[in-house]
Design brief:
homodimer, alpha/beta, Cobalt-precorrin-4 Transmethylase, domain 1, Methyltransferase, Cobalt-precorrin-4 Transmethylase, Domain 2, five-stranded parallel beta sheet, cobalamin biosynthesis (chains A, B), EC 2.1.1.107 (chains A, B)
Chain lengths: 266, 266
């Protein structure tokens, strides 16, 4: 068996972005990679509607964090990918959004590099894009937002949020905060302290682009209070900036309201 | 005829991101929209390999800028979309990248809103994501780049580049500059003047994710000189930050070099 394994051709790993949630937002390349896979290694941000597209007989390995479950540590995931590829498998490592935007995909790529495993990276629609399109809210707009930036609001245990607040408090740049729900009060406090107007509109989206999508809109200064009235189940994305005001205007004009609850409570 | 047109149901417009160039990076939703379309209105950033996927009999309208051709003004494009939809057509407005990131898609959405035309926005893989995945270069990486931002290096005629250089010169954020080739010397001068180290690695990519993709890597301070030695045909994307160093390391270890010409000329 050992010699048979040794003579076996090494497999390949695809680091694949599954997009924001809607299975139609998978790329053709992601679909092809999933179709070639012997094994799919996925985490909790990949919705079941996408897992349902995986063919019978393909091994599915859940390495995601779930309430009451400890996630598989990143180092173990890295090793698992190398081990599966060395056993000749074609592996899809399926991650929510884009593997190279807050996805730790680069850590997996580094491990595969080091081990000499062939791999390919398949980009995915990141949550900011999916949520913006669904809400008809641009991320940039001439004269309103000259650029866009993505940061994470997640922090390591017992460490402060290490963000350059002065730079982030720019009214002409759309600011997208991933994984910021737990620390939103601190985020709002720091942004307003650095001069971002408290009236700046914010769109908060949970499970964007899925049938379970829920949103609220609120001015920045009212956001922590507004969030107390909703129960989001899943990671929340915050899009902060004048573009969120465009979404609100469009919502007002449309039959299908963009915000299920527009909480302008300030 | 007039009364027949009046009784005709109004059509629908899809504002669709075609992605960075590789036709496999279209989303399933984009493919479906193109399949439903009677008319596809496209611009110069949509490669011919994607136009080739459009079915025979679908009207294709080129509104793009091309050398020696004047582009169709944005206002005319907006009106064209409204007119086609009012004539009962299903229209795909196909744009390079993502329609809501530097795509002026939001201006088209505003016009459709105003006219009461039903429309849907289909996000696309933006150039930064496509080029990063192809070069195996993350846009964020723990301990290296805590976030990413997209700006445009394009300016209106005779106006200075209106960017907050101090905020952009952040060594811990990946900076992606779209459409910056014409003004790259000014961009480099401003970033280094604000303290971004001249040794910061930069990846410059032209026609990323296509068979014609070409790249150079150079330290920030050497970039304007390095660019004189290459002839890029098409828009160039600059990815500035320590993540570009990761791409270089991976390139050095790989059989398939990530940079066709690594010009470290400083």
């Amino acid at each position: 068996m050992v010699s048979a394994e040794r003579s076996m051709a090494v497999g390949k790993v695809y680091l694949v972005g599954a997009g924001p949630g809607d299975p139609e937002l998978l790329t053709l390349k992601a679909v092809r990679a999933i179709g070639e896979a012997d094994v799919v290694v996925y985490d909790r941000l990949v919705p079941s509607s996408i897992l349902a597209t995986i063919a019978d007989g393909v091994l599915q390995i859940n390495v995601g964090k779930q309430a009451a479950h400890h996630p598989v540590p990143q180092e173990e995931i890295n090793e698992m990918l190398v081990r599966l590829a060395r056993a000749g498998r074609t592996v899809v490592r399926l991650k929510g959004g884009d593997p190279f935007i807050f996805g730790r995909g680069s850590e997996e790529a580094a491990e595969l590099d080091q081990a000499g495993i062939p791999y390919e990276v398949v980009p995915g629609i990141t949550a900011a894009q999916g949520c913006a399109a669904a809400a008809r809210m641009p991320l940039t707009h001439r004269g309103v937002a000259s650029g866009v930036r993505y940061v994470t609001g997640h922090r390591k245990a017992n460490e402060p949020l290490d963000l350059d607040w002065k730079s982030l408090a720019d009214p002409d740049t759309t600011l997208v905060v991933y994984m910021g729900l737990a620390n939103i009060a601190e985020i709002v406090r720091n942004l307003t302290a650095q001069g971002l107007p408290g009236t700046t509109p914010v769109l908060a989206v949970c499970q964007g682009t899925t049938a379970q999508e829920s949103r609220i809109c609120a001015p920045l200064e009212a956001l922590p209070v507004a969030l107390k009235d909703v129960s989001f189940s899943g990671p929340v994305l915050f899009i902060i900036g004048k573009v969120a005001g465009i979404a609100l205007e469009r919502s007002a004009r449309s039959d299908a309201a963009i915000c299920e609850a527009i909480s302008v409570v300030a």
